Amino acid sequence: MSAFSSAQTVLVTVLFILTGAGLVALFILIVLHDRIKRRYQKDASTLASIYESIPDLLFCIDTDNRYTSCNRSFLEAVGRTEAEVIGKTPFDIHKDREVASDFVESDNQAMRENRLTTHIGWLTYPDGSVKLLETIKNPIVQDGVVTGLLGISRDITLHRQVEDAARASSDFKSLFLAHMSHEIRTPINVVMGMTELVMRRKIPPELYESMLEIKNASENLFQIINDVLDFSKIEAGKLEIVVNEYSFSSFIHDIVTICRVKIAEKTLFFLVNADSAIPERLIGDDVRLKQIVLNILYNAIKYTQDGYVSLAVSCELENNTANLVFEVSDSGIGIKEDELNTIFNDFVRVDHLKNKSIGGTGLGLSISKNLCQLMGGDISVDSKYGVGSRFVVKVPQIFTDYAPYTRVEDAQDKSILVYEQRLMYADSIMRSIENLGTRATLVKTQKQFFRELELQNYKYLFVASFLYENVKDNLDKIPPDARVVLLSETGDHTVELGVARMDMPVYALPIANILNHVESAFGRADQRYAAFTAPQARVLLVDDASTNLKVAEGLMQPYYMQIDACKSGFDALTLVQQNRYDIIFMDHMMPEMDGIETTAKIRAFDNEYCANVPIIALTANAVVGMREMFLSNGMDDLLTKPIEVPKLNAVLEKWIPREKRMRFITNDKSARSVSLSIDGVDVKAGISMTGGSIENYLDTLSIFKKDMLEKMPAIRQCTLRGDWKLYGTYIHAVRGVTAIIGARAMSEKAREL
Ligand code: ADP
Question: Residue 438's closest CA among 510, 508, 522?
Fold first, then answer.
């Protein structure tokens, strides 16, 4: 009762005495009601003043879309008085019917669905200004029934303008980056190309070192530019996934070849296992997928000093989808747990102390993750600091007709004895062989090796090349039908009669190729390093991977042919029109214009030479049916990658015209035991190329001398007269004969001239 004043208390007492308790109770009720009403009115007026003064537009409508109330901001926005609004619909107060109908529609939707909805639309104010309003519409519910709607509209024009400006500036930045990186790529390409050309020449070792540095630096720069270009494309949302059909065997072969070269700079084990069940024909963006896997592998190589880097590829088949899983593990520096989540962010490089001597931009993983997600996959990582890391890339690819990328014919009948002491390699090889469904036994000592040979009839002997000495001393103990295959390191070009080679790391594809092509690889004892020379023959190599080109050129060097190499179908078309080739080796999978398209374009040139020049498909795909596919597309033959010398011999022998081939025998005893030495001349090669006997060689030398003595004055005359055409013809001949006698440097000089 403290709420009553003293006058009221006195009055109550008098009244209580005069009229009784009932009347008093009624009075109390009236007084209380009065107070409640006053209090309520005070709250209501506070609310009303907020309602009025708020800059947002507030309004209520009923279910017939008639306004039941609105605030001052609303009236100002529509340029009406309260009387002109209350009881009216949006059609009555907005001149623009489209605007009104838009409002009504969204109001009705919010009431119909009885949920909070947001509507964004333009409104023209009475002063002519146009504003963007964001309206939140909240249905009013009484006794479970929607009776109307409360709307709150806010002016977001400025907000949107700021957003647009930010987006425009970011777009501009991305566009600028894209243009710049594109422009920079062109001159860098020239630097890289010219460096490559100079390095192919005979140059002094110190110059070679400097060129190597230019080459490495420009390749790094090229990589950075490519990353920046990709980054800017991702930022601008312009990076697209280009889907096409590709061959998994080519894909994995290229990855292994590229990394094999990269890893050779370090003393690391490189282990590869690629499940032979992965489909050969896949549909997806192989170029981008290769970029992701190579990026992760490069990192593994970069951040690992000792131990190993391994790549394991597996897949799960689900209807027409092959869910590929690439697992890259290393025994490198590892990543701290709290930094694991950040490494996929833009420009993030972690552990600066350890990393400071290792180059990088911190863009690679962020780009890879983005690309991966664009392809419907993802990348994850787990790592132990100081122990190593494991990155897992998962990407779904489509396949239509299932055929595995590699398999061994009659796998059960092929028994292999593996002689390898290095546990990691041994383990990896055994796993790949098992995966192919073939039997193998592993031995680690010479004693075990020969004992096993006595116990069982092995068809294939896989021997680590550094252990071959142990085998070579007892060749007589090897059964005549057993095939020796050397597991060789990069850069090891040991060539042994009747011995095949597989470059480490070996995995399902090269193993199956060896096991499937037994006869062509070993069949003829006289199929050796180079069965002949062909200095007059002209060859064109087309492959987009420079490493593949280098390997092929290296393998063809002993044939002394004139080799041109180019990295795209477009360049091939130009070269084919400029020169007359005896044979063209054409890679199948190349970006933009692939081998099949290039062949079709060559065949379409209207001349007899282009219609007939032998085109040999280079492919890592030894799958049945491929040969027919190439032949039906205008090619003449097929050579599988990695190129094996016996097969190369067979192809060259078949397609290089007979008159351009010159026989020689490499295994002649006299070639090995000769003690003759001439400065600047590879006598052994000379003897081989002139038939294998020292007598023949000496004869050739004297003919060469006589010939040169006669031709020298004529050549000199040409230079004096400026008759460069005849000079060219003479020098061309010098080039051929000097090559035959083993004077390589001179032959090379003549080629340059
Ligand atoms: P970077 O160009 O620096 O290599 P990335 O985006 O490819 O950029 O990688 C981001 C960071 O993640 C690297 O700077 C490195 O700190 C860390 N990282 C990536 N891969 C490995 C790895 N295999 N081992 C250890 N650290 C790694």
Answer: 508
**Residue 517 to residue 527: CA distance in whole angstroms:** 14
- 689-691-693 Cα angle (round to 5): 110
Strands 130-142 and 145-155: antiparallel
pLDDT in tens, 383-423: 999 999 999 999 999 998 899 999 998 888 889 999 999 99
Q: And the tokens for 205?
A: 């070792």
Long-range contacts of 130-134 (CB under 8 A, 24+ apart): 131/77, 131/155, 131/157, 132/156, 132/157, 132/160, 133/57
Order of all β-strands in the sheet with 67-70: 67-70, 57-62, 145-155, 130-142, 117-124
Residue count (the chain): 753
Nearest residue to 584 (alpha-carbon basis) of 645, 541, 555, 548: 541
Which tokens in the block code for residue 52?
């009025």
Integer-rounded Cα Rg, in Å, for the chain is: 41
Tell how far the Cα of 569 is from the centroid of ligand 1, in angstroms: 35
Atom of ligand 1 lying closest to residue 344 CA? 6
User: How many A from CA of 373 to the centre of ligand 1?
Assistant: 19
The pTM for the full model equals 0.55
Phi, psi of 563 (to 5 degrees): -110, 130
What average pLDDT does the segment 92-99 reach? 90
Instruction: Give the neighbor-by-neighbor strand order of the sheet with 538-542.
Output: 562-566, 538-542, 583-587, 615-619, 637-640
Instruction: Quote the CA–CA distance of 8 and 15 in Å, as a whole number.
Output: 10
589: tokens are: 């999978």
Q: For a pocket test of ligand 1, which of 294, 365, 379, 384 has the largest count of ligand atoms closer than 8 A to its C-beta?
A: 365
Tokens 């993983």, located at residue: 365
CA dihedral 70, 72, 74, 76 (to 10 degrees): 150
Question: What would the pLDDT profile of 249-286 be if each residue is shown by its tens digit?
Answer: 888 988 998 888 788 878 899 999 999 999 999 999 98
CA distance 667 to 646: 15
Relative orientation angle of helices 248-263 and 546-556, to the nearest 10 degrees: 80
What sign results for the dihedral spanned by CA atoms 432, 435, 440, 443? positive
CA 430 to CA 427: how far, in whole Å? Answer: 5
Contacts of 270 (CB under 8 A, 6+ apart): 259, 260, 263, 308, 309, 310, 504, 505
User: What separation, in Å, do the N-terminal and C-terminal C-alpha atoms of the chain show?
Assistant: 121
Half-sphere exposure of 462 (CA within 13 A, CB side): 31
**Residue 63 confidence (pLDDT) above 90:** yes
Q: Which of 537, 529, 546, 492 is nearest to 200 (CA)?
A: 546
Using H for helix, E for strand and C for coil, what is the string for 540-566? EEECCCHHHHHHHHHHHHHHCCEEEEE
Residue 110 CA to residue 64 CA, distance in Å, equals 13
500 lines ligand 1 (CB under 6 A): no
Q: Please say if the pLDDT value at position 691 is more than 60.
A: no
pLDDT band at 42 (very low <50, low <70, confident <90, very high): low
Ligand 1 neighbourhood includes 195 CB (under 6 angstroms): no
Atom 7, ligand 1: residue with shortest CA distance: 364
Rounded Cα distance, 241 and 375, in Å: 7
For residues 348, 353, 355, 359, the Cα torsion angle rounded to the nearest 10 degrees is 80
Neighbours of 213 (CB within 10 A): 11
